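agent> Task received from the user: take the single chain below, predict its 3D structure, and emit C-alpha cells. No templates, no multimer pairing.
agent> Plan: (1) validate residues, (2) run structure prediction, (3) serialize to C-alpha cells, (4) report one or two observations.
agent> Step 1 OK, no nonstandard residues flagged.
tool_call: predict_structure(input=
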Amino acid sequence: MDVKSRNHLLLNHEALVRDIKTSYIMDHMIADEVLTLQEEEKVKAQTTQKERAAMLIKIILAKDNYSYISFYNALLHEGYKDLAALLQDGIPIISSCNGNKSMDGVTSYVRTVLCEGGVPQRPVVFVTRPKLVKAIQQKLYNLRSEPGWVTVYGMAGCGKSVLTAEALRDHHLLEDCFPGGIHWISIGKQDKAGLLMKLQNLCSRLDQDFSLSQRPPLNIEEAKDRLRLLMLRKYPRCLMVLDDIWDSWVLKAFDNQCQVLITSRDRSVTDSVTGNKYEVPVESGLAHDKGLEILSLFVNMKITDLPEEADSIVGECKGSPLVVSLIGALLRDFPNRWGYYLRQLQNKQFKRIRKSSSYDYEALDEAMSMSVEMLNENFKDYYKDLSVLQKDVKVPTKVLCILWDMETEEVEDILQEFVNKSLLFCDRNGKSFHYYLHDLQLDFLTEKNRNQLQELHKKIVNQYKKHYKLHIPTPAQEDCMYWYNFLAYHMASANMQNELCALMFSLDWIKAKTELVGPAHLIHEYVEYSHILDQKDSRVRENFQEFLSLNGHLLGRQPFPDIIQLGLCQPEISEVYQQAKLQAQQELVKGAFYLEWVNKKSMKNLSRLVVRPHTDAVYHACFSKDGQRIASCGADKTLQVFKAKSGEKLLEIKAHDDEVLCCAFSADDRFVATCSVDKKVKVNCCQFNNTNDQLLLATCSNDTYIKLWDLNKKYCRNTMFGHLNSVSHCRFSPDDKYVASCSSDGTLKLWEVCSANELKTIDIKDFFRNADEYQDDVEVLVKCCSWSANCATIMVAAKNRLLLWNTESFLKVADCRGHLSWVHCVTFSPDGSLFLTSSDDQTIRIWESSKVCKSSALVLKRELDVVFQDDGLMILAILNQQHLQLIDGNTGHTDYLTEAQESLICCCCLSEDLQYAAFGEENGTVKVLKLSNRVFKSRTGHEKSVQHCQFTSDGRTLISSSDDSTIQVWNWQSEEYIFLKGHKEAVKNFRLLENSRLLSWSFDGTVKVWNICTGIIEEDFVCHEDAVLSCAVSPDATKFSSTSADKTAKIWDVSRGELLHLCSPITVDEGESTHGGWVTDLCFSPESNMLVSCGGYLKWWNVTTGESLQTFYTNGTNLKSIYVSPSFKVYVTIDNLGILYVLRMLE
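)
tool_result: status=success, residues=1147
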C-alpha cells in the first residue's frame, strides 16, 4: 500500500474505529476479492464493535492499494460519506496496464480464445458483479476433470449472458480447465428446423477444413453425432456455451459427454440430460446502486453528482440492466433531459405488451418508445423495418443491404447507430457482421407496428425479388441460408399468395433447399402455410407435399438425386410431373438424359408418409392411444417419439445399451415401455392391454413362450405354450379378449386371454411358396401383427410383405408390399384409419387403410422376356409362379394367359417372331409351347432348377442354364441336344453372341465363351473374386463388361484384357453402394458409348468417362435383369415388389 494511503488510515484510525460497523463493509470487500473468508472470521472473533473495527483496519494496512480502494467504496455504499471524505485524498493511483494485460484487464490469449469462440464482447457500459462472476467461475472449475453441465439461471434481462461472458475472461480458468477453447452458441426459442440450422452452422464453424464431411448434417441426430466426433477429435477439453435455452429437448442434441455451460430462465432445463450438474442463480435485477452506476458511466459522472431524478429513473426501470442501459444511452446524447425521461416513464399507464409473455414489460415499453423516438428521422423507418425479423435469428448484413438497396458500408453505418443506442446487437464473429434484436426489443417493435407488419413483410419480399430476379441464392452467398429458412415466412406473413405459391411450387426451390437442409423444413412449411397455399386449389400443394413426404428418404442420399427424374415418376396429372417434364425437355437440349415411366398409370402409392428417424433398422413402432404420436425403436439403441401427421420429432432417448426391440404406450399415453437385448434373457416384445380396469402386460421371448403379467398384483398370471421357435411379437386385441402371437416357426397364433388356451393357428409360411425369393432366404419369420379397431381383421408382417386376414374365416383378404427390406412391425392406429410399418430399410411408412383394399394377389416374378418391335414391345412374364402372361408393353393389357402348371415356373422366354414361348421349371424341365396352344414339347435334362432360357434367333434351338452348373443346348424340333460343362458352381446367366457363340457367367467368379455347336470353351476369364452376376459384350466387340456380388461393374478391353473402368468404386464398408445393392445385369448401347446397369435400382453410365448419367429409383429393389430395345431407348425391368417398369428415353 502506498505510504500516502497508509498514513490516511492511521491518521483517521480513531474515527473509523469509533463509527463503522464491520459486517456490511466486509461483504463489499469480499465481493471485491480483497478480503478472504478467513480474515472475515478473524474480525468477527473480536468481542466488541470497536475491536472488530480495529482488527479490520489492521488487516487492511497489511494489504495493497486495491484493499484501500475497496474499503473506501464500501464506506460510500454503506452511507459513511463523512468517513469516506476523510480517506478521499489518500486514494492511490493504479495503473490500468499490468504485464501482458490490456486496458480492460484481459490478456491477449483470453481475447483470442473468446473471439474465436464467438463469445460476445463486453457492453459499451459494463458494471462488474464480481460475486456472481466468481460463483460462475467456481462452478466451471468443477468441469476441469470431467464432463458436466453448469446452469446460469434467472429471469429475463437479469444479465445472465453478460455475466457468463465475463466469467470466461479469466486467463487461468481457460488455461487450466478449457485449453480446447470456448464455443458460444446462441440458441433461443427453437423448433426442430431452427435447431437443425443452429447445429449445421456450428458444425460448419468447427469443421472448416471439412475433415468429417463435405455437407451439412441433414437431421438433428446426424448433427449430434457429427458434433460428438468434432468434440472428441478436434476440440477435447473445450467448453460449449449454450446461450438462452428455453426447452429441455434442445439439450439432447448437445448431450455428448462434454463440458457445457447454459444460460436459461428455467432452472429445471437440465433435468432431461445426464451427467454432473451445477447451478448458479442470478438475482432478478440489479441492485439500486448498480443501476445508478450504469447511469453514471453512460453520462460520465460520479454517482454522487447524479441529479436527484436518477434514483427515481432507476426505480422505474425495475432493476432491469437492459432498460437502464436504454435510458442511459439516451441520456448520454441528451444529458439535460433527466426530468423529461422520468416524466415519460411515470405518466404512462404501464401494461404488458402480450399477456402470454413472461417478460416484465412495464418499464421496457416506455424505454423502447423513447429510444426509438430519439432516433434521427431518417433512421426511424429503417428501425421499423426490423419488425419483420424472427426471434433469436442473426441476420447477415447482406440481407439488410438487399432490404434497403444500399452498399454494405452504408448499411453498417446505420446499424451501428442502432447498436450505439442499445437498440440492436452485433455479432462480429468471423469476417461478416450479423445483427439481431433482443426478444424484448422485437416484441416491442412487432406490437408497435402491428398494423404495418404485412406491408413490412411485403417490402422485404419485393426487395428480394428485385435483387435476385429469377435466380436463387447459392450456398456461396452470405445471405443464402437466411432466404432458404425465412423467405416463405415473409411471404406468408405478407399474405402474398401468388408469390408464396410460385416459391413453394417450384422444383428449383425445392432442389436448392432440400440439398442444403433436407426436406423436413419444407414439409413443415407446406403444413404451416396450407391456409394460404390452398386458397385457390389444394391439389397442387398436396402434390408437392406428397412428393416430398414419399421421397424424403431419397432426398437424404448422397450424391443428391436428380429431382427432375424423381418428379417424372409422379402421376401425369401432378403439378410436380408437369414441371419436371418441362424442365427435362429444356435440359435435353444441353445433353441431359431423362426417362419417362410409360406404364406408371397402373401404380397407386398406398403410403401417406415415409420417415427415417433412425440410423439403422427400425424394429418396432406404435401409435399412441390418441393417434397423434408414434414411438419407434431399433438397432441404433434409441427410442424416438414423433408426430404422426408430419413426422416432426418430439423426443429422443438413448433407451438401452443394446438394440431396442419393442416399445409400447400405456393406456393413458403417460408411459412408454421398451425392451432390449441388453439383459441375459432376451425379451422380444411387451404389450399393455387396452383398458385400465385390469392392467396387464403380455411378453414373449426366445424361450417360445408368451407370458401374461398382472401388473397390479405383480405376478405372472399365465404362460402360453405352442410355438416351436422363438416368439417375436404379441398383441392384445382391442377388446382385450385375445392375444395374437408371431413366431419364427412361420405361424400366427390367437389365444384367449381369460383361459390362455390356443384359439387358432395360421401357417403363414404356406403362403410364401414363392420361387422369386432368394434360395438362401426361404425361411419365413413372422415378425409382427396388429388388430383392426373392430377386431375383424389382423395385419401380419412377414419378409417385406403385409398380409391382411379375416379373424372369423381366417382367410387372407389383402396383400401389399412397399418396404425395400424385411418388415419388423405393423400397427393400426386406434381408429383403424391408418397403419404404420417399420423395416430394416430404416424407414417407417404410414399407410391409409382405405387404400389397402382387397387385392388380387397377382405378383409378377422378376424373370421375364421382352421382344421389341418397331411400334411397341411385348413382355412375357411369370404370374404367381404358375402362369405365363403375355403383356402389351404400350397399353399394359394382358394378351394371353396360360393355364396353371404343376411345377413352379422359374424362367421364361419368347421367340423373336412371337410364335413360341418357352419356360423352365423348378424340377429341371424346359417346355416349349405355341402361343394360344398348350405345351407340345418338353425335356427334362437338368438335375436342378432351370434359372434362365432363351431361343436362338431362328427359334429352333432353346438354350437353358441351371443351378446344376450346366448349360443345355436343345434343338427342340430335331430333339438333338448337347451340354456345356465347365463351370464349378451354378450358372448365373448367359448371353448369345454371333457366330454360334455363347457368353456365360457363374457364381464361381468366371466368365466363359463357348461354341454352342461343338461345346468347346473358346475364352475363359477370371473377372471377380465373388460371384459374377451379369456381363455383356459391346456391339462393336471391343469392350467387355462384368458385374459382381461385390457390388461393382467393370469394363474391360476385350483384346488386351485390361480393366478400363470401375463404375462402382465404393465398398460396403465405406457406405452405400453406387448401385444400391448387387449389380445383377447390364447392357451396352449400339454405339458402345453408354451402359445401363441394374441392382438396387437402375443406372446409366458414360462408358468413355465412367461417370453416371442418370439414376432411376424403383419402388422396390433387387432388380434381376434389364431388357433394352435395339435403339437403346426403351428399358424394361421388374422389382422385388412385382412392379413392372417400362421406361422410355425422353427425346
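agent> Step 4: summary for the user.
Residues 680 and 702 are 11 Å apart (CA to CA).
agent> Done.
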